[in-house]
Known about the structure:
Elements: H1 6-14, H2 20-33, E1 39-42, H3 44-59, E2 71-75, H4 103-110, E3 114-119, E4 139-140, E5 143-147, H5 153-160, E6 166-171, H6 177-183, E7 186-189, E8 212-217, H7 220-230, H8 247-250, E9 259-262, H9 273-288, E10 292-295, H10 303-329, H11 342-353, H12 356-376, E11 382-386, H13 419-423, E12 427-435, E13 438-445, H14 451-464
Parallel strand pairs: 2-3, 2-6, 9-10, 9-11
Antiparallel strand pairs: 1-3, 4-5, 6-8, 7-8, 7-12, 11-13, 12-13
Helix pairs in contact: 2-3, 5-6, 9-14, 10-11, 10-12
Amino acid sequence: MDETTAAGIARAIRTGDRSPVRVVEECLDRIEADDHNAFVTVISEKARERALEAERAVENGDDLGPLHGVPVAIKDAYAYKAGVRNTFGSRAFTDFVPDRSAPLVTRLEDAGAIVVGKTNTPEFAAKGVTDNALAGRTRNPFSPDRTAGGSSGGSAAAVAAGLVPLAQGSDHAGSVRIPASACGVVGVYPTPGRVPQAFRPNAYRYDLPHVSSGPLARTVEDAALALDVMAGSHPAEPFSPPDDPAFLEATDRSTNGFRIGYAPEFAGAPVDPDVRRVVRDAVASLEHAGGTVERTSLDFDEWDDAQDAIMTGLEIMYADLAEDLHTAHGIDPLARRDLVDDHVIDRIETGRTRTALEYKRANATRSKLFRAVQAVFEEYDVLVTPTLAVPPFESADGLPETIDGRKPYGPLGWLLTWPLNLTRHPAASVPAGLVDGVPVGVQIVAPRFDDEAVITTAAALERERPWIDYYDR
Length: 473
């Protein structure tokens, strides 16, 4: 295991058992051999230069960061790396090169991580599957014809395929957790603001729904290690929580005495029977880890209104994003509509017509949902649900039209992730098992700001049902 995990690689580099130069070269070789279309841009020479610097630091006996020499990948969306092309998955931004790095990228590099490239995303991260007219479709490493999920599908596929041990994603309706489930990896949606985004010119752009950046990794330890580096308050981030959890320490804590609520029909979604079975078995194993599991449900049935609320927020968010990109970088997606997918244009234009009253009504529905989720945590320490209602589906088939004989109630009806982006509760998807050889995830949700409970529960499940053997390498 240690040979393919971020924590194991970092330990081996610190002891001199592995060379940063060799680690990065092996990583680049794997990407060149078959990257599953996970990468949009690979920065081989920059990565090699950083690896050489990392090797000299080891030889000189310098203080080494917790991710020293570890290759990482960054989603090609809002986490800029200075001097590296950032396309947002759009032909309209093929030549855009930011002159500054996002805070989370700076923190990863300051901790010794070596960025090897930017990973594929649907255009402007606007779908739950990863394909676009610029780079094409990312393939699921477990089954190339199936979706890798999205919108952080490139990052999830890169980790699942062993191209990198660690990658970053962003999540505004499940965009870290969806591909984590589809690709059989760990994906964490931290409390919004926990990992600073510091968007400009509008730092409040992602208030409805709440967007958060988080890691994708093969192990809970790796995800926690990344969060210890990425998380922490930042003066330019208005949503920074006042506390700083100890994520890595949380992996060693016990779930003995945890009250665990299991909600198999969270988000009002019908769930495939095989998914339900695998997730139920995974949840039951938490009892062996000392928890008490009870079936529960939310006192909330306005799921159509809730989905309308998040769609309203997403439309306004994309209109705001387009304006910010024009203001900050002089590139207007609407002025380049021949290079932008119609569904993105529709979201931007619809968002521009939304009224303050519509936004208020969306927040009123969101408030009801928030109270319902809060009520669950008056009885339970964590809530667990399926992450997706279906296993990863054939990409050529498009979104599922029926699930367990029922029609999903809207475009998000196959997801059980998006309500948490309305309520701001931290969550993660971790592997629950396989259905016909492809992964299924279980979603772990904790009270607001209790990110450590998510990590502790995820680590307990990993100890009970290790998934590292799922991977070819």
